[in-house]
Amino acid sequence: MSAPRPLPRLDPDNRFFWTSGEDGKLRFLQCSDCATFLHPPRPICFNCLSENVAPAVVPGTGVVDTFTINHQKWSPNMEVPFVIARVAIDGAPGVILTTNIIGSPVDEVEFGDRVEVVFEQQEDVFLPFFKKVG
Amino acid sequence: MAEAYITGIGQSQVGQKLTRHPLLLTTDAIREALADSGLSLADIDGISTYPGKASGYLGFSPVGCEDLIDALHLKVRWYNGGMETSAQLGAVATAAAAVKAGLARHVICFRTVYEAAAMARPQDYPMSRSARVEASSQWTAPFNATSAVTWVAQYAMRHVKKYGMTREQLAQISLTDRANALLNPRALVREPLSMEQYLAARMIAEPMCLFDCDRFSDASTVLIVSAGDALGDVKCTPIRIAASAYQSGGRHSWDQAEVMASYPTGAELWKHTDYKPKDVNTVQLYDGFAFLAITWLEGLGFCGIGEGGKFIEGGHRIALDGELPLNTFGGQIGAGRLHGFGFAHESVVQLRGQGGARQIKGDPKVAVAASGGGPLASVLLLARD
Question: What is the rounded CA–CA span in Å between residue A19 and residue A10?
Answer without folding.
Answer: 9
